[in-house]
Amino acid sequence: MGSQIQIVALQEIRWSRYGLLKNDKYSFYYSCNPNNTGQAGTKFIIQKSAKNKILGFETFPDRICKLRIRGNIFNIIIINIYGATGDKGEDIKEQFHEELQRT
Q1: b/e for 62-89, b at 16 or more Cβ within 10 A?
Q2: What is the pLDDT of residues 40-99, one digit of tens each?
Q3: 89: left (phi > 0), else alpha (psi -120 to 50), else beta?
């Protein structure tokens, strides 16, 4: 009997806004640029069997989101980050690092 992956973190999902979408098998928690699609964005995909372990989801600007999960002994926080790449301007990189520090 092997373990199964119940939570996956993805980056560069290219959606817009933030929120929660559900279907029969998965829940999608996502945080993206509210003004346009096609850039950055982070998302967690959670299997239905793990959805009752989710304690909270927090969004930050389009490159960071945080998921709180109930653990057996301790609760767990997973931070999903899509870092500012080298071709971005210094102001975008600086803003990203400031937001990461606040997270």
Answers
A1: bbbbbbebeeeeeeeeeebbbebeeeee
A2: 788 899 998 888 899 999 987 777 889 999 988 999 999 998 876 667 677 777 777 777
A3: beta
Query: What CATH superfamily classification does 7-102 receive?
Result: Endonuclease/exonuclease/phosphatase (3.60.10.10)
Domain ranges of the chain: 7-102
Q: State the residue for tokens 């927090």.
A: 58
Do you know the residue count of the chain?
103
